[in-house]
Amino acid sequence: MRWFSYKPLEDLQFEHGKSLIMQNNSNDKLFMLGNFAVLGAPGLMAYRIVANYSLMGTFNFLFSSALLVGTSFFTKAWLGFTSSFVKEIHLVKSGKHIEITNYGIYNTKIKIKISDILNPEESLQTKVKMQFFGTWVIETRQGDCFYVVQESQAYHKDVLKHILKGIEIEVAPQKDKSDIIDI
User: Fold this and answer.
1) Contact present, 147 and 84 (Cβ < 8 Å)
2) pTM of the model
3) Which residues contact 12 (CB under 8 A, 6 or more apart)?
4) What is the DSSP letter of 163?
5) pLDDT grade, residue 80 (50/70/90)?
6) DSSP track, 118-137
7) C-alpha closest to that of 3 among 86, 102, 122
8) Residue 90: partners with Cβ closer than 8 Å, 6 or more residues away
9) Could you read off the pLDDT of 32-54 as tens digits, one per residue?
10) Structure letter (DSSP) for residue 29
11) Is 128 helix (H, G, I), strand (E, B) or coil?
12) DSSP secondary structure, 31-94, as one string
């Protein structure tokens, strides 16, 4: 049976309309080093071809060109791979959406409707991915797939657990202090 919404155990603090639910900073250096190395390889191969074109023989030119094409495909695959790892999850103030920041080259922010997240208890495919990778998987009905690394720090574990199951969060309305008259 699917719940319609979940009321958190403690009040969530919202800044700029978002509340930080989960964060992972343990892999920042690893991903930056990997992105630098992977993005630099095709550039170095292209520079080698352009700078030494007149000195290269046919075989050397073909081999260098094949390496350039191979490293370019590897770069595209690496960037797609790293952009599926979650760096931060914010709950939007409505309680119906989350904003995921990923480890891609630009740290893009993706807004996802919580009700579109597949519950791993109901989806065998998601459950198998979670067991294979040994981590939480956020898979949406549109086919998007994001991985939450184990070293991540959850600030509101109960809220994160229900978000990963696709259950919307019931956000308590903030008391408006503008109506209070101070005497």
Assistant:
1) yes
2) 0.70
3) 19, 91, 156, 159, 169, 171, 172
4) H
5) confident
6) PPTTT-HHHHHHHHHHTSEE
7) 122
8) 18, 19, 20, 21, 98, 99, 101
9) 666 666 677 777 778 778 888 77
10) H
11) helix
12) HHHHHHHHHHHHHHHHHHHHHTGGG--HHHHHHHHHHHHHHHHHHHHHHHHHTTBEEEEEEETT
| CA-CA-CA-CA torsion sign (120, 12, 89, 157) | negative
Query: In this structure, is the dihedral angle defined by the CA atoms of residues 69, 70, 71 and 73, taken in order, positive or negative?
Result: positive
Q: How far is CA 168 from the centre of its chain?
A: 19
E-state strands within 93-140 = 97-102, 109-113, 136-139
Q: pLDDT of 4-42, one tens digit each?
A: 778 888 888 888 889 898 888 766 666 666 666 667 777
Q: What Cα–Cα distance (Å) separates residue 50 from each residue in 56, 106, 167?
A: 10, 28, 55
Domain spans in the chain, listed from the N-terminal domain onward:
13-24+87-169, 30-82
Decide the pairing of beta strands 86-92 and 18-23.
antiparallel
Does the pLDDT value for residue 77 go beyond 60? yes
Instruction: Tell me: pLDDT of 122 over 70.
Output: yes
Per the CB < 8 A criterion, the answer to whether 169 and 162 are in contact is yes
